[in-house]
Design goal:
The chain has 371 residues and is of the alpha/beta class. The protein is built from 10 helices and 12 strands. It is globular and about 60 Å long.
Length: 371
């Protein structure tokens, strides 16, 4: 009997698209879009400490650490949930987009489980999963405008179902998260700098220094964050005393008020660009027949407190993915697999599955994914 015919199923989620190794097991009802699944177990390992000395992600190091951590995390999840691998009905695994080495590491583990227990695999676009993670805590109705902001992607999508995403706009160059992290590295704030800038900015003046708002004069949904990053580099070249050389944590008392003001001003420019373009994205959605729809904010940068506050101040219906589900995590992968269970690839066909690194062609903002 096909396990997908069962109303309630057990789903294993595996996420290794970048530097976080994350596993989760959930129980949920197929097709029950108005009910939250139950998270039975969730385990993650962050490589932040390991990668801090490099100032960012090194794909080879990330893939090697995924290999070391996946099996222990899987064993811990099965122990926490009191389940056995044979009881899992569906395996969801991130296959795109991301770093190919890390992606293939997670996919090969999924294939190994599928081979031993003859289970189906569902390939997950983890960008979609970031937005649909809202249903882990707030089951909202479709359609909605999704704003996905992460270290590698910044895009607007019109989401009309768990399987229907239309890209309304994206960044032409750098992602917002990249702009945060690169600027923080230039400032000497440590890694990951986006979180540190957010903390420092809470005690800073967002109007003290002026940074450019990307594509401010273009009345469309395309974004750009390379200009603000370049502006920060130029500012620091002219004002080298602002470069912080000692602290690793935002709570460090050695952070000067000038650095707090600089962080707040830089953050303000990035958030202003995102909120400005959100207005155009809503107009574009309305022109497509979807007016007055809610906004869902997801992705790693969705943890940014100032972005969350500004979106909720400016727009009436804003739903933010909870911080624990914003960064790459296995629960969002399992959740998306549950919500799109009909897309599963049965055994043994799933053993031919591959991974893809790209999703959006930044040069033109076009969708290159064909899932």
């Amino acid at each position: 009997m096909n396990s997908m015919l069962k109303k309630t199923i057990l789903v294993l989620g595996i996420e290794t698209s970048c530097d976080d190794t994350s596993i989760a097991i959930i129980r949920g009802e197929v097709g029950a879009t108005d009910r939250r699944p139950t998270i039975l177990a969730a385990q993650s390992f962050s490589q932040e400490t390991l990668l801090r000395k490099w100032g960012g992600v090194v794909p080879e190091i990330a893939a090697r650490n995924h290999t070391l951590k996946l099996t222990p995390l899987l064993e811990q999840c099965f122990q926490d949930s009191a389940l056995k691998p044979a009881q899992i009905d569906l395996i969801g695994v991130t296959t795109h987009p991301g770093l190919l080495g890390p992606l293939l590491t997670g996919l090969n583990h999924a294939k190994t489980l599928a081979l031993f227990f003859e289970k189906p695999i569902l390939p997950v676009n983890h960008l979609y999963a970031h937005l649909e993670a809202i249903h882990l805590t707030n089951p909202i109705s479709y359609p909605y405008l999704g704003l996905l902001v992460s270290g590698g992607h910044s895009l607007f999508t019109l989401v009309t179902s768990a399987q229907e995403f239309s890209i309304l706009g994206s960044t032409l160059d750098d992602a917002a998260g990249e702009a945060f992290d690169k600027a923080g590295k230039l400032m000497g704030l440590g890694y990951p700098a986006g979180r540190i800038i957010d903390q420092l900015a809470k005690e800073g003046d967002p109007h003290k220094y002026k940074f450019p708002i990307g594509l401010q004069r273009s009345a469309d949904t395309m974004m750009s964050f390379s200009g603000v990053k370049t502006s920060m580099r130029s500012f620091l070249e002219k004002n080298p005393s602002f470069i912080h050389t000692r602290a690793e944590k935002a709570q460090d008392e050695s952070f000067s008020q000038e650095i707090k003001d600089l962080s707040a001003s830089y953050q303000h420019a990035i958030v202003s660009a995102l909120t400005l373009k959100t207005k155009y994205a809503l107009k574009k959605a309305a022109a497509m027949g979807h007016a007055n729809i809610p906004i869902v904010l997801g992705g790693g940068v969705a943890c940014n407190s100032y972005l969350r506050k500004e979106l909720q101040r400016l727009f009436p219906s804003v739903y933010c993915v909870e911080p624990q589900f914003c960064t790459d995590n296995g629960a969002m992968i399992a959740n998306y697999a549950l919500r799109t269970a009909s897309l599963k690839v049965d055994f043994p066909g799933c053993l031919k599955m591959d991974a893809r690194g790209r999703f959006v062609d930044k040069a033109y903002g076009r969708k290159s994914d064909r899932q």
